[in-house]
Design goal:
The chain is of the alpha/beta class and 405 residues long. It has eleven helices and 17 strands. Residues 201-300 form the Peptidase M20 dimerisation domain.
């Protein structure tokens, strides 16, 4: 029997198994969506973690439950989960370690699940977190389930990481994400696909800066010439920094916060700017950082100095040849089941950025099709579930052995 025929048989088997689980998937999704799990609701997130942990254990995974440190703001998050299942092909024989990543938190407050309960209307399911990311996380669990049923174990290790704080930038789980990604060969993000069905091949990185502008106070009416106006320098800097937009493709610079002065009759001695930079590549983030520092060296007001601090950096998930190979593989399988796929780049960030920052190729948006995330209209296309689960399962199976994609 030829390899293409065996491959098509596997795809057909995976699709049949995924279709058979559609009803169970919806029942499970209703159960998950009915659990409030806002990022700041540690108890709610932990109820989701309890559910996911039980499912992983039934699938033969060894599960580590990680109590995370408080965020830099002192908030407690829910626990993270790291599930691992060894395969039958060790790395020394060409087996690969595959990391699947989804998140358990939502943007919604406690009480939202009762006020806006799960429902299915036609081909769409609605409810808080139905798409972002409970539908995607559940798709990953379902894909692992059908692979186990088929006896697919030609991989070194499968790892599923479920985080509790993605919606607030993963401040508590970042170190765990990076540690878990270390040593993996591929990363698969379980966020749902774009509204048009596209997968996500790239996500911009984000760098946050604080500029502290120091001038010199003086009486504004009697001796203003003795002062150095930090507010005026901040205004010059705002204009200069906003003018950086358009200098590089896929780069945005936003002066989002400007604070200056305390009283109108004092020449302003201090000001602060908060800046967000988004860029598709690490090289562009470095270029913008240099440009910000150069602008800070020319504040436009004599006697004023500017200190530049980078407060945070979420690395970009870059469009790389390795991630393109993964995408080309999925697109080929999608054609076999009647789906056309595109590759999208987005300015939004997620845990996939942190995984990509460790140097491994990542493909995201591998959950079912969904949309209107973070709104009361959030939806999931339930008709897309079997095909997307089968696609994800086949991708995992294909990546498990060196040289198969």
């Amino acid at each position: 029997m030829s390899a293409p025929t065996r491959r098509q048989e596997r795809i057909d088997d995976l699709l049949d198994l995924a279709r058979a689980r559609r009803g169970g998937y919806l029942r499970d999704l209703e159960e998950l969506v009915s659990l409030d799990s806002g990022s700041h609701s540690a108890d709610g997130v932990n109820r989701v973690a309890d559910w996911v942990e039980r499912r992983l254990e039934r699938l033969g995974f060894t599960v580590e439950r990680v109590r995370l440190p408080s965020t830099p703001d002192g908030d407690r998050t829910g626990d993270a989960l790291v599930g691992r299942r060894r395969g039958g092909l060790p790395e020394s024989a060409g087996g690969r370690r595959i990391l699947l990543a989804g998140h358990m938190d939502t943007v919604f407050e406690d009480g939202t699940a009762a006020a806006r309960p799960f429902r299915v209307d036609g081909s769409r399911a609605y409810g808080p977190g139905v798409s972002d990311d409970k539908g995607g996380l559940l798709a990953g669990l379902t894909a692992l389930e059908i692979l186990g049923e088929l006896g697919v174990d030609a991989y070194d290790e499968l790892v599923l990481l479920a985080t509790p704080d993605e919606e607030i930038g993963s401040p508590a789980s970042r170190s765990l994400i990076e540690q878990t990604a270390a040593g993996a060969h591929f990363g698969l993000g379980l966020e749902c696909a774009r509204e048009n069905g596209d997968l996500v091949i790239a996500r911009k990185g984000v760098a946050d800066f604080r500029l502290t502008v120091t001038g010199r106070a003086a009486h504004a009416g009697i001796e203003p010439e003795r002062g150095a106006n930090a507010a005026l320098a901040a205004a010059h800097l705002t204009v200069a920094l906003q003018a950086l937009n358009g200098h590089w493709d896929d780069v945005t610079v936003n002066v989002g916060v400007v604070r200056a002065g305390t009283r109108a009759n004092i020449v302003c001695p201090r000001a602060e700017l908060r800046i967000e930079v988004r860029a598709a590549t690490t090289a562009d983030i470095r270029r913008v950082t240099r440009a910000i520092r150069e602008a800070a060296g020319r504040p436009g007001v004599p006697g004023v100095t500017v200190e530049v601090e980078r407060l945070d950096l979420c690395p970009p998930m870059e469009d790389t040849p390795a991630s393109r190979r993964m995408f080309d593989h999925v697109r080929h399988v999608a054609r076999a089941v009647g789906i056309g796929l595109g590759a999208a780049a987005t300015g939004g960030v997620g845990d996939a950025n942190l995984i990509a920052g460790t140097g491994i190729p990542v493909l995201d948006g591998l959950g079912p099709v969904g949309g209107a995330d973070h709104t009361p209209q959030e939806w999931l296309d339930v008709a897309s579930v079997p095909q997307r689960v089968a696609l994800l399962a086949d991708l995992i199976a294909s990546l498990g052995k060196a040289g198969t994609t």
